[in-house]
# Entry
Amino acid sequence: MVAESPERGLGCVVGFHRYTHQEGFSMEDSHFGDTEPAYVFFDSRTGDVVQVVYSGYHWYQASTWANNLDYVVDDRQRPILRVIPPHHHHTTDFARSEISDVRTDIPTSDLTERYPEWLEDDLEDQIRPGSVYSPWNMRDWEAWWEPSTMTEFEITLQRIWLAWEGVRLR
# Structure
């Protein structure tokens, strides 16, 4: 999905990387289907990337500016995100990822058609309203989760994990 904001002079490619399954550290951490968000904000006039907001871990927001990214080619329009196994969250650091090749042939589909089916099994109650269809919000929010869906203990554990992994949050 591409969102435009003429008043901001920015566009945003709203993307979710979809996986068939996640093989976690335990059975409780493993499941079928996995989805990780990545939003690419770009200058509407030039098409150049301005910022990328992505899942640093379990739908907690991490972000980086254009000058800290690598690109598929030197066009500043196709940034590279790397996947950290086993949870599929993202990083911009080559050393932290396991995948060394850059794929540009990944099939895409329109998010507006697929998103409602992802909200099954009460996910709709857990996702923060406006985090997908109004991507500008995610530049300021800590997570895609509705704040009331996680306990302070879970939030603290997430932050400890992110710090241990070396993921810089917003």
User: Anything to note?
Assistant: The beta strands are 2-5, 10-22, 31-43, 49-57, 60-65, 82-84, 89-91. The CA atoms of residues 133 and 153 lie 29 Å apart.
